[in-house]
UniProtKB/TrEMBL annotation:
<feature type="domain" description="Helix-turn-helix">
    <location>
        <begin position="23"/>
        <end position="67"/>
    </location>
</feature>
<dbReference type="Pfam" id="PF12728">
    <property type="entry name" value="HTH_17"/>
</dbReference>
<dbReference type="InterPro" id="IPR041657">
    <property type="entry name" value="HTH_17"/>
</dbReference>
<dbReference type="InterPro" id="IPR009061">
    <property type="entry name" value="DNA-bd_dom_put_sf"/>
</dbReference>
<dbReference type="InterPro" id="IPR010093">
    <property type="entry name" value="SinI_DNA-bd"/>
</dbReference>
<protein>
    <submittedName>
        <fullName>Helix-turn-helix domain protein</fullName>
    </submittedName>
</protein>
<dbReference type="GO" id="GO:0003677">
    <property type="term" value="F:DNA binding"/>
</dbReference>
Length: 76
């Protein structure tokens, strides 16, 4: 059974985190402890569709939404 995590739990876990609220792709991959290539595959597949915005050629990720999506599935 998958464990669901609430927004409050995410904020509590990340309180005082070294990671800022908005992350570059390399920081997002580091936070999730996955290769950068894996992060890009997840973006391309739609798994992280509501976790990032594109600024030119760069992807910027919402730290809290990213953690939520990984623990609870794709954001709705």
């Amino acid at each position: 059974m998958a464990v669901k995590i609430t927004s409050d739990e995410i904020r509590e876990l990340l309180q005082g985190s070294e990671y800022p609220p908005i992350l570059r792709a390399d920081e997002a991959a580091e936070l999730l402890r996955v290769p950068l290539k894996t992060l890009y595959v997840w973006v391309a597949s739609g798994r992280l569709s509501r976790c990032f915005t594109k600024q030119g050629k760069r992807l910027l990720f919402s730290r809290d939404r990213l953690v939520h999506a990984i623990f609870n599935g794709k954001e709705k």
